[in-house]
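Morning. Coffee machine broken again, so started the prediction first thing and wrote up yesterday's gels while waiting. Chain of 195 residues, entered below exactly as on the submission form.
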Amino acid sequence: MAAPPGEYFSVGSQVSCRTCQEQRLQGEVVAFDYQSKMLALKCPSSSGKPNHADILLINLQYVSEVEIINDRTETPPPLASLNVSKLASKARTEKEEKLSQAYAISAGVSLEGQQLFQTIHKTIKDCKWQEKNIVVMEEVVITPPYQVENCKGKEGSALSHVRKIVEKHFRDVESQKILQRSQAQQPQKEAALSS
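Came back before lunch.
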């Protein structure tokens, strides 16, 4: 069934809409679904970054006025091709990371151990669980309670690097705790001063 005139928007067209809240939205049509009356507009980035854009999903049932500024009549450009192997690799990596997290939880690893693992994994991808131990680059093993002194391995750059990561992790955790305590005490001080 063909859409009545004015109720169909071609990809690439420039449109302006006024919402029921009197907000004016303007942008390029990137998608339109006639049945659900949903319109996707590409607008300049609200962050102001030059190579970014905002995508707004607009339910046309809540729009009081739509104006087509520039109707695109020619065929829209073809969609960009997707690198399926890259997407599959990314999905596989994400799945492996989630399974690793699930393993750590099921193995009874402490929250501190899980957080340390995530911190190390951000820097060194070659990081895995071996029961409750963290194994980094097949060279360094960190055993519970996961402190610097629990880092074992052949003396060298790998062990030294992992120890530095562990030290920094616990410094950052301690700094965060101090900050949270001071923020928690602030309202108490203000309440005491006001009474």
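The chain has two domains: 14-70, 98-184. Going to sketch it on the whiteboard this afternoon.
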